[in-house]
Specification:
The complex is a heterodimer of chains A (143) and B (219).
Chain A: H1 2-10, H2 28-31, H3 36-45, H4 47-50, H5 65-79, H6 90-105, H7 112-115, H8 125-141
Chain B: H1 2-16, H2 31-44, H3 68-74, H4 78-92, H5 96-112, H6 120-142, H7 147-168, E1 174-179, E2 188-192, E3 211-216
Antiparallel strand pairs in B: 1-2, 1-3
Classes of the chains: A mainly alpha (143), B mainly alpha (219).
Bound molecules: copper (II) ion.
Copper (II) ion binds at residues 20-21, 139, 149, 153 of chain B.
């Protein structure tokens, strides 16, 4: 009974949402020309946790999941934020591109805890190749 | 209902899943901060004789007017080099735990650097290298059990160190080595204190893979 009260109680404490209508000038799409197919994969599999605009699932309103999600997105953005990519130094951009490529190759990103629910965020072999190829080419092009 | 239960289970599981890259924001240095620091530096220059360079380097004896060139001599990347080398050596011996603690030590060293001792014209470049290096050091620290990932970070650290050496020189003689295989055959650089090749990217699997590219004499 006590637990039920707590569970209902915490539903009233919702964290701030990570949502924004406009794409900032520092967004990777604005700083570099991102091919359509790459962009579609990024939006589908990466932007929820690595940009200033998350498309929230219905259960994101249910506590304590909402807190977990907020914390998760906060950490994801600290690590890499596509909305702020243009603010990074050239060195950091290259570093991030290399890291993204490595994480995708090793299957470490997107996190399995995320794809467990977001089945459509799972990268196909083809998606991985497209991303890795583009990340690699970008890394070499930034001086 | 079945879906709801599933989702709740999934969310709960996600709670206990620890991911790579749980990195705090404390090292992030915005460009604003950087310009603040350089302003501060300009302001403090007239009485700058009392600034201490990197740890281990002593003050000028007379403590008087320090010119930019003198300051340049005072700033040394030696503590960074030392930590890099012990990290590199941990990975040569396939020791992920030792690498993790070496990463932690390197992060602490980078955080301790007296930014005021860095010549103004090299400040921005230093900051960019250091900010990036801190992230790599942190990830290496967090990735016990994933030595491959630690090595990926070492490769980028090596590139940063190369630029640091170009900027500030080294007091210790170092060998710049090249591993042709790492990073999907794109190759990777590493530095060592000895001429003998001991590859930190493959460890015991391919200990002697690589070549000395350059000897950098310490000054
Ligand atoms: Cu990492």
């Amino acid at each position: 009974m006590g637990l039920a009260v707590i569970l209902i109680g915490i539903q009233f404490f919702q964290p701030l949402r990570n949502q924004s209508d406009e794409v900032p000038a520092t967004h990777i799409e604005k700083v570099y020309s991102v091919p359509q197919n790459v962009n579609a994969i990024l939006a589908q599999s990466c932007y929820d946790c690595h940009s200033n605009n998350t498309s929230y699932p219905w259960y994101s309103r249910i506590q304590p999941g909402a807190w977990y999600l907020a914390e998760h997105i906060k950490k994801g953005k600290e690590e890499l934020n596509f909305s702020e990519f243009g603010e990074y130094s050239a060195r950091k951009q290259r570093s991030k591109l290399r890291a993204m490529s490595g994480q995708i190759k090793d299957g470490e990103m997107p996190l399995s805890s995320y794809t467990l629910i977001h089945r459509n965020a799972i990268l196909s072999e083809e998606d991985k190749q497209i991303l890795m190829k583009w990340f690699g080419a970008m890394e070499d092009s930034i001086k | 209902m079945k879906n709801l239960t599933l989702s709740i289970i999934a969310v709960t599981m996600a709670f206990i899943t620890v991911s790579c890259n749980q990195v705090s924001n404390k090292n992030e240095q915005s460009s604003n901060d950087t310009s603040d620091v350089s302003q501060e530096q300009t302001v403090s220059q007239p009485n700058g004789g009392d600034t201490i360079a990197a740890p281990g380097v002593s003050e000028t004896p007379n403590g008087q007017q320090t010119t930019a060139t003198e300051q340049e001599k005072k700033f040394s990347i030696a503590p960074i080099v030392t930590d890099y080398l012990s990290l590199k050596n941990a990975l040569v011996s396939d020791n992920d735990k030792a690498a993790a603690s070496a990463g932690k030590k390197l992060l602490a060293t980078l955080n301790k650097v007296d930014l005021k001792a860095i010549p103004a014209d090299k400040h921005k470049q230093y900051m960019e290298i250091a900010d990036d290096a801190k992230e790599h050091a942190e990830h290496i620290n967090e990735n016990v059990g994933n030595i491959h990932h630690q090595r990926e970070h070492l490769a980028v650290l090596g590139e940063g160190l190369k630029d640091l050496i170009e900027l500030f020189g080294t007091t210790q003689t170092l060998y710049q080595n090249h591993c042709p295989m790492f990073n999907d055959g794109k190759g990777a650089v590493w530095f060592s204190e000895n001429k003998e090749i001991k590859n930190p990217y493959y460890g015991s699997k391919m200990m002697t893979c690589g070549k000395v590219e350059k000897t950098i004499t310490g000054k």
